[in-house]
Design brief:
two-stranded antiparallel sheet; three-stranded antiparallel beta sheet; globular; Preprotein translocase SecY subunit; mainly alpha
């Protein structure tokens, strides 16, 4: 309790926290403002029928903004897709101009960020148009109540313009949270959307027990499983592989330096929620393509394959998570740079020669622990969904949502603790530190 009180003793930290809360309140308010011209009852019925599909999954990410067809329906997905493509292009060295910008330091990164914003605008327009076309065609052929009451050209223009503007505003809001608040803004916006469904999920669980849909014993078992999974996720998310490093003694002037033993910490799950968010974002692309003609046979086949519990969907999902875990490590950690810096300061790994052998050893260790971390993240993201499907557990208890909530929570706590320790206040734990992951979705 003392640590919570210390937070509000630091004016800068207090301002940052209140700014985050205010920004998230603005986002949640915008998520409830619907676009005019929509049959709300038909839209809600359609999303109720699509709970187990990717569409229902994306609605969870948007905090219900998509099922309300609000001004923030697109959320941050276009921005995340743009960031993924920009990162892949930079990693593949396709455009030399991006390689030059990367080497220019802060000014180069600002230009790359600007390119990402332009690309976000393009993707937001493309996805907004696809979503609007899909909604206008749903129920138009007598297959149920029509969702769009008057699909005129004016409706198309206003809807697409509103959705694109909402996406750009949410992107700007996320950047402001990152700069002026605590934690990563884009991740916190996704976090807020998921947590918004927690109270209704808990009440839904209680209602299922009351109407004897599930037994009290099964309800307690599910609760215990959720607690155990959360604890296991926290344990793995904070786990490290410590490579021992020895620094040789050397004379600088008249003083002797070095001779110390330390370690190089490598996180088991370095990418954390980034891999999960990227995987979900890419899986939304086929749905967007199919939404341009939802009544076509090929589109309906594509939608059926996008069912959240289909084997093909799960296999692609697992493959994307593993890929992005390795991709994030290749971008964020350079074993050669670590080995060169270690050699420069007289450090070495016992039993390993400095230079290239050290880089190879670090890469070998990193690949091994990344595989374990990636398989763990994939298992947590996929396996709880089968529990939900078998026992009608509320969707909130799905593994993907759990990974994001725990991961973002740990990172935000770690950054808050860093502010406390920097100003000579006690952290959240007296004898240890929260091992968070400082990351940027757009990096």
């Amino acid at each position: 309790m003392q640590q919570i009180t210390d937070i509000f003793k630091i004016q800068d930290l207090k301002k940052r926290i209140f700014f985050v809360l205010g920004a998230l309140a603005v986002y949640r308010l915008g998520a409830t403002i619907p676009i005019p011209g929509i049959n709300t009852a038909a839209l809600q019925a359609m999303f109720e029928a699509q709970k187990g599909s990717l569409l229902g999954f994306l609605d969870i990410f948007s905090g219900g903004a998509l099922s309300n067809f609000s001004i923030f329906s697109m959320g941050v997905m276009p921005y995340i897709n743009a960031s993924i493509i920009m990162s892949l292009v930079q990693g593949a060295h396709i455009f030399p101009v991006l390689d030059r910008l990367q080497k220019e330091g802060e000014s180069g990164r600002k230009k790359i960020t600007q390119f990402t914003r332009y690309f976000t605008f393009f993707l937001a327009a493309f996805q907004s148009l696809g979503l609007t076309i899909a909604l206008t065609k749903m129920g138009a052929g007598g297959n149920g109540p029509q969702i769009v009451t008057d699909p005129t050209m004016a409706f198309y223009f206003v809807t697409v313009l509103t959705l694109v503007t909402g996406t750009m505003f949410v992107m700007w809001l996320g950047e402001q949270i990152t700069e002026r608040g605590i934690g990563n803004g884009i991740s916190l916006i996704i976090f807020a959307g998921i947590v918004e469904g927690l109270p209704s999920a808990v009440m839904g669980m209680i209602k299922l027990i009351q109407i004897d849909e599930i037994s009290l014993l099964l309800g307690l078992f599910i609760f215990a499983m959720v607690v155990a999974i959360v604890a296991f996720v926290i344990w793995v998310e904070t786990a490290q592989r410590k490579i021992p490093v020895q620094y040789a003694q050397r004379m600088v002037g008249r003083k002797m330096y070095g001779g110390a033993s330390t370690f190089l910490p490598l996180k088991v799950d370095q990418s954390g929620v980034i891999a999960v968010i990227f995987a979900v974002s890419l899986l939304s692309v086929p749905y967007t393509i199919g939404s341009f003609n939802p009544n076509a046979a090929w589109a309906q086949k594509l939608m059926s394959l996008m069912n959240h519990t289909s084997l093909l969907y799960q296999a692609v999902y697992v493959g994307l998570i593993i890929f992005f875990c390795y991709f994030y490590n290749s971008v964020s950690i350079n074993p050669k740079d670590l080995a060169d810096n270690m050699k420069k300061w007289g450090g070495f790994i016992p039993g390993i020669r400095p230079g290239e052998p050290t880089a190879q050893h670090i890469e070998w260790v990193l690949n091994r622990i990344t595989l374990g971390g990636a398989l763990f993240v994939a298992a947590i993201a996929v396996l709880p969904d089968y529990l939900r499907a078998s026992y009608a557990v509320p969707f909130y208890f799905g593994g993907t949502s759990l990974l994001i909530v725990v991961g973002v929570g740990l990172d935000t706590i770690a950054q808050t603790e860093a502010h406390l320790v920097m100003r000579n206040y006690e952290g959240f734990y007296k004898n240890s530190r929260v091992k968070g992951r400082w990351f940027n979705v757009g990096s």
